[in-house]
Amino acid sequence: MASVHESLYFNPMLTNGVVHANVFGARDWVTPHKMALLVLLSELGRAGAQLGLLERRRLNRLLLPLLQGPDMALSRLRKAIEECCPHLAGSVHIRLKLMAEGELKDMEQFFDDLSDSFSGTEPEVHKTSVVGLFLRHMILAYNKLSFSQVYKLYTALQQYFQKDEKKDGADENEMELTNPEELDGKMEKEELDGPLREEEIACSGPLSQKQAEYFLSQQASLLKNDETKALAPASLQKELNNLLKFNPDFAEAHYLSYLNNLRVQDVFSSTHSLLHYFDRLILTGAESKSNGDEGYGRSLRYAALNLAALHCRFGHYQQAELALQEAIRIAQESNDHVCLQHCLSWLYILEQKMFDSCVLLEHSVNKSLHFGLPYLASLGIQSLVQQRAFAGKAANKLMDALKDSDLLHWKHSLSELIDISIAQKTAIWRLYGRRYFSCTSTMALQQAQTLLSMNSLEAVNVGVQQNNTESFAVVLCHLAELHAEQGYFAAASEILKHLKERFPPNSQHAQLWMLFDQKIQFERAMNDGRYHVADSLVAGITALNSIEGVYRKAIVLKAQNQMSEAHKLLQKLLIHCQKIKNTEMVIRVLLSIAELYWRSSCHTIALPVLLQALALAREYSLQYLASETVLNLAFSQLILGIPEQALNILHMAIEPILAHGAVLDKGCAMFLVAKCQVASAASYTPQKKIEALESAILNLNEAKTYFAKVDCKEQLRDVLYFQARLFHTLGKTQERNKCAMLFRQLHQELPAHGVPLINAFK
To answer: What is the Cα–Cα distance from 661 to 441, expressed in whole angstroms?
Structure first.
């Protein structure tokens, strides 16, 4: 299931994607790039009515990112203007050329003429508009320059223009050797209004206050909404270090550094940046200005709370508990109920690592509703649903609770929690069986599709994917697993490919698809009889999920007939899972242990193990696992010599498997039915026996279809062997020879391991 407490991290830097950076000391200054923008604004005012409505609209949309963003090369600026208005781009280039190749007095005259934009009864630019403020800032910054600084600015302008001229000459030479169509294709791929590229920022030099604020705001928003479009962790850290070099007390840069280090799981650097953020916040007095005398204490308690969340994320539970106790103490002294509710939520997370308790969570939900904190209340409800789902509570009550939380989400437009709620429903449909639902896999698929087709309620930039969250990663992984279970491996590969593109390996949710990818590859290798490949995948699964890794290692050992080693691993895993109350894995381990007893001819010992697994599955409402356990019980009765009783049990349990089960389980169920039919036919009359054997052959054909769909060669070989024997008994020589030939081909490809056919259910 999706983790519903990921969003409990207090983020004082982000408010609707905007960074509140008001401590950066660097003022605005005039640069050649900003002079090019001033020329653009001047030419835009001169053009007036000559510009069409569409061209003016495009230019207005282009101006804001240009004014807020870092300096860029003149060639890229010209290209951006040409896309909006080619005529205006030529005018800007000519004006800059005259200024750069003229004299210093031309630049002086240009700045003197800028003031005319505000004169008259109907000025071209209003003083309080975005453009007006930019013009006034540049005029003031230029007027404060000394003569030597003016001369340096003029020299920089000449170099800025000459660099563009040299690049144009190089481009013309390259165009002679390049296909024009290919060149156009390259130009179309450039995203002129997209996020800042690494080479742009690296070459832009020191950022002004507004540029720094824009840069931090954009990168923080991308880290939250679409991590793939943010700068790479190393590049972003390099730029943040450059910002901090000019102003070490820039608190928000430290917080973005903290978020960036979390992406790469760097616990030392994350802690270092987080502590620096709150230290700088207190030293600069930014919190005191907005919160009065409470600002200092507020920073301290939220610093302790964030430190506790950080330690909990990295599994340092003792350190997290100490930090949380400190946050609670300071919050109680300040009577900060909001902070106390955050602390209570994290206290529940720490407590559930040691024992199951709903008391803290229920208290947190009630208090959050009392203090008007719908976000925390909804998180608490969803955590409560998740805990009770694992405890085997009635599914209809869980769905009612999620419905109540959905009312909170839609009422307060909590987009992220709506996504988490749908992901939780998908997981519940997958977890529970057919006891409460008519078609679990179909409903899980429907919930997944609902989430994937939803549009975010939050406003984000154009081209930014809002849905790169943990909920979407979980749902896409469920979809990949559902397709793989039904034998649609190509579709599952496409989904995983999309996951890899949306969540790159260095992103925080990449471990989800990595685990599912390894598990699907493992199942395919086991089905194909390539145990050495499956064994090589165990290490990767163990690194991502130790319990799954140990379980699959035992499965490989069992398939390789290393029974004693597999039994030791399964016994250790059983004790561990019982301790942490992982009921689903406990049942699967018990089924594997029962299969080991079959293979070791200890059939009677397997029965109590299977009955224990069946009791657990029914107690926790895991109906699909209960049906699978009943099939194993039927197999035990078959090998104990009571096939009629096995057939009776099969008719009760096989329906949910065939309706909603994985393709491999369907094939195994039909194979088991055929075995029971053949064993029961021994006491029938000759005519009835022939009918029973023919019915068994039809069931074997169905099982063969299922096994072929998932490329399960070992089971196919067993089915072909069984069919050949039945055809031989019925005197159908041609069909027998065909099955024997196919069996021989598979047998040569997959040599037998010395286990009798009757002693293997799956």
So the answer is: 8
In terms of Cβ atoms closer than 10 Å to its own Cβ (0-12, 13-18, 19+), residue 498 is middle
Query: pLDDT by residue (tens digit) across 451-488?
Result: 777 655 454 444 444 567 777 888 888 889 888 988 89
Which range scores top for mean pLDDT: 62-76, 370-384, 517-531?
517-531
233-274 residue pLDDT tens: 888 898 888 888 877 888 888 989 998 888 888 889 988 988
Q: Is residue 25 scored above 90 in pLDDT? A: no
AA letter at 531? Y
Cβ count within 10 A of residue 574: 18
Q: Rounded mean pLDDT of 163-178? A: 58
Contact 201, 239 (CB under 8 A): yes
- Measure the CA–CA gap between 383 and 742, rounded to whole angstroms: 53
Q: What is the pLDDT of residues 301-317, one digit of tens each?
A: 888 888 888 888 888 88
Number of neighbours of residue 702 by Cβ within 10 angstroms:
18
The C-alpha atoms of residue 618 and residue 615 are separated, in whole angstroms, by 5
C-alpha 158: how far from chain center: 48
The token pair that represents 539 in the structure block:
């290490």
Dihedral sign for Cα atoms in the order 751, 755, 760, 762: negative
* Average pLDDT of span 697-721: 91
Among 209, 321, 323, CA closest to 275:
323
The C-alpha atoms of residue 639 and residue 159 are separated, in whole angstroms, by: 89
Residue 27 has pLDDT above 60, yes or no: no
- Per-residue confidence (pLDDT) for residue 188, from 0 to 100: 39
Cα–Cα dist 743/720, whole Å: 6
CA distance 192 to 691: 74
Residue 94, SS3 per DSSP: helix
Instruction: Classify the phi-psi angles of 315: left when phi > 0, otherwise alpha if psi is within -120 to 50, otherwise beta.
Output: left
CA–CA separation, 666 and 291 (whole Å) = 64
Residue 405 to residues 356, 383, 400, 408, 717, Cα–Cα distance (Å):
22, 11, 9, 5, 51
Using an 8 Å Cβ cutoff, are 164 and 73 in contact?
A: yes
Distances (CA, A) of 470 to 224, 248, 348, 407, 421: 11, 33, 21, 21, 12
How many CB atoms lie under 10 A from the CB of residue 540?
16
Question: Can you tell me which residue has the tokens 């998740």?
Answer: 386
Residue 18 has what DSSP assignment?
E
- Dist. CA 716–CA 707, nearest whole Å: 6
The amino acid sitting at 26 is A
Torsion angles phi and psi, residue 72, rounded to 5 = -135, 165
Boundaries of every domain in the chain:
32-166
